[in-house]
Amino acid sequence: MNRRLLWKLCGILALGTSALFWVISFVGSETERQMSFIAEPHQQTLRDWGRTAEAMYRAGDEQALARWLEDLQTRENTWAAVVRSDIQPLVGSRLTDRFRDGFRLGRDETWKIHLYFTENPIMETTFADGKTHFLVLLPQRMRPGTYLPEVRILLKVALPLAVLVMMCLVIYRHVMNPLRQLELATRQFTEGNLGVRVRTLLGNRNDELAALADTFDQMAERTGDLILTQRRLIADLSHELRTPLTRIDMAVSCVEEGIDTQHFLPRIRHECRIMRGLVEDTLTLAWLENEKPSLDHESLDLTDLLDSILDDARYEYPDHHLQVHLPDRAELTGSSHRALAQAIENVIRNACNHTPAGGTITISLRREENGYRLVVDDEGPGVPPEHLELIFKPFFRSSVARDEKPTGHGLGLALARRQMEAAGGWIKAGNRGEGGLRMLLWFPLPNPGPHS
């Protein structure tokens, strides 16, 4: 089963989850790094303090420097001092150049501050002589990371929520866009737009929702065809019924006026038979078109079936010659006796109707590899090549057919094709080179099972 949508959603969730952890990690570390540095105005204040202390120290006014340090400590509630870095080695120890160059009493104001240490660091400003230093314990007001707890809450709650909302929006759009197209198409279809389709609107998408769109299109096409077929059948049937109804109305009027009652009563009965046959054939055709029925699977002998139909044809058309070529037996299983009998009877009756009196209708049945082929040739006027498929449409009649048999309704061959298709076969028409129409009927043999 196609599970492309499942894998797409799993991929989106996997990528979204990975992106979520990466964003939280990156943004968290970057935010913490940025918050670990003393603000630039505070860095400038520390440098100013260092320069002030150095100026007083170089002026040699130790009392003024002491008062200034005392005032600074009181004002900032911190500790501050001026110290020297002369370190004397003991017991023969020797200080390396690397130690002398790298030794620091405190931190430079540009250094990173560890936010997780509760104690504030000591900041250092080195005087010009390189041996004297101004030290101050970083005042609390200058400590970076004041809003770190709030930022950490945002990183742990707001940021994951934002990423998850974005993932939900991506999934929602991916799922809802085709569903909206399907909803719009369904609404248009219910409003009468039978040609609306969805699959082409989804582009190259190939997942469960695309399969749903394909199913909808198939349903829409099938339902649209049924609706159009019903409309056409109703319109054609109403048109065909007008003529016998008009004749009956005229005959009834004559009977009511007492004009030749014995002549018009048989005419009324005849028109009623025509109307009944027309309605029954139309209903049968509508059933075959709409329901696509699976007919009863029966075993029959095509030779016997044809013999019975041909006996009726000889009785109905005594002035026609029937030339018949049938095998002794033509066993057929898994088919429908009723459907095939009606189809063959309609084809042979059509051939007889269009063959002039004294003409010959040739019927031949032969076995082929996968079934039986029935050929019915008549000596009628044939059919224009552009009408060879149209003659199987309900109520279609060529101008020649209307002139030869004005009482026909054009349902016989349409019923024959639907009945053959319902029984698993097919029917085709073609013109003979010497004149007349040739009807080909194919009756397939069922495929043998693996153990038959």
Notable traits:
Heat Shock Protein 90; 5-stranded mixed beta sheet; 11 helices; alpha+beta; Beta-Lactamase; 3-stranded antiparallel beta sheet; single chain; 452 residues; 10 strands
How is this fold's topology laid out?
Layout: H1 4-35, H2 40-59, H3 62-76, E1 80-84, H4 97-102, E2 122-126, E3 132-137, H5 148-190, H6 208-256, H7 261-291, E4 298-301, H8 302-316, E5 321-325, E6 331-335, H9 337-354, E7 360-367, E8 371-377, H10 399-404, H11 412-422, E9 426-431, E10 437-444
Parallel strand pairs: 5-7
Antiparallel strand pairs: 1-3, 2-3, 4-6, 7-8, 8-10, 9-10
Helix pairs in contact: 1-5, 2-3, 5-6, 6-7, 7-11, 8-9, 9-11
Describe the overall structure:
The chain is of the alpha+beta class and 452 residues long. Among the domains are: 40-85 and 97-142, Beta-Lactamase (2-Layer Sandwich); 230-291; 298-444, Heat Shock Protein 90. The chain has helices at 4-35, 40-59, 62-76, 97-102, 148-190, 208-256, 261-291, 302-316, 337-354, 399-404, 412-422, and strands at residues 80-84, 122-126, 132-137, 298-301, 321-325, 331-335, 360-367, 371-377, 426-431, 437-444. Strand 2 (122-126) and strand 3 form a beta hairpin. The longest helix has 49 residues, at 208-256. The two termini are 32 Å apart. 21% of the residues are buried. The mean pLDDT is 80.
